Amino acid sequence: MSRVHFKNLRAAIRKEGFTGASLKDMVKEYVGVEADNDHYDSPCYDDLDIFINGLFFFKAMPQQTKDLEPDMVYYQKTPARTVFDLVEQAHFTKEDVFVDIGSGLGQVAFLVHLLSGIPARGIEFEPAFCDYARVCATELHLSHVTFINCDARQADYSEGTVFFMFTPFRGAILQDVLEFLRREALRRRIKIITYGPCTAEVAGQSWLEWLTPRDNDLYKPAFFQSL
Questions:
Q1: If you write DSSP's letter for every residue of 203-214 in order, what string do you get?
Q2: How many domains does the chain have?
Q3: Model pLDDT for residues 130-142, shown as the tens digit of each residue
Q4: Nearest Cα to 49, choosing from 60, 61, 64, 33?
Q5: Picking from 8-17, 116-125, 133-142, 189-198, which range would have the lowest pLDDT averaged per residue?
Q6: In degrees to the nearest 10, what's the CA dihedral of 4, 10, 12, 18?
Q7: Where are the alpha helices (H) located in 91-186, listed in sequence order?
C-alpha cells in the first residue's frame, strides 16, 4: 500500500473511529485476518503486521536511550494477529480498563482500544518509545489511549482491570510487579493476559487461576483471573 492509502485510512480513523467490526472489515479488505495459529515456538509476523505498522507508525522507530537492568527484556512487538486473537478471547466489558505493562511503541494499546472501545493505558520504561506512542495516539485522535513513562515497579495500577505482559522482564522484577498486581487484586478482581516466557512464571502464582486451558505453547495468549 502507498503512503497516500495509509494517510487516508488514518484520516478515517480520526474522523470515524473505525472501532470494533468496522476496523476488522477495513483490515480484512486489505490483508485478511485469518491465519494458521496452531503452534509457534516464537512470535510470528505476517502481512497484517506490515499493514498495522504502516497504519500506526508514521516515522522511524526511535533509538533506545536508557540502559536496561539485567532482568529487563529488549523491546519486541506483539504480533498483530495475537492482539486480534486476544481481543476475541478477552470478553471485555464497558467497565474494563486495559493496561499494557511494557507497552513499547503502543501497538497493543491502540489495537485493543480500537477493537474493543475500552480505555487503554501503556506503561513504558523507555522515554523515547513512550513519547513516540503518545505522538501516534495524538495523530490518530485516540484520547482514551494514554502512556506513562515509568518503571513498572513504580506504576499506579489502581485503574486497571485487565493487564497484559509480553514478557517485558523476568526474575525479580517480574515477581515485584506480580506482587503489586496481587495487592490490587485484594481490592477488586483483575485479569492478567500473558504472552511469551513470562506465562510460566505467572502460572505459578497461587492467587491466580487459569481462564483458558493450560497450554505449553508460550506464544499463545494465556488468560488468568484473580481468585
A1: HT-TTEEESS--
A2: 1
A3: 999 999 999 999 9
A4: 33
A5: 8-17
A6: 140
A7: 107-116, 127-139, 171-185
Instruction: Give the residue numbers spanning the domain of 190.
Output: 3-226
Contacts of 71 (CB under 8 A, 6+ apart): 169, 170, 171, 172, 173, 174
Q: Rounded mean pLDDT of the chain?
A: 91
Burial of 101 per CB tally in 10 Å (0-12, 13-18, 19+) = buried
- Do 133 and 124 contact (CB within 8 A), yes or no? yes
Q: Is-contact 216 190, C-beta < 8 A?
A: no
The cell for 178 is: 506480580
Q: What is the CATH number of the domain that holds 152?
A: 3.40.50.150
Q: In terms of Cα–Cα distance, which of 135, 167, 121 is closest to 62?
A: 135
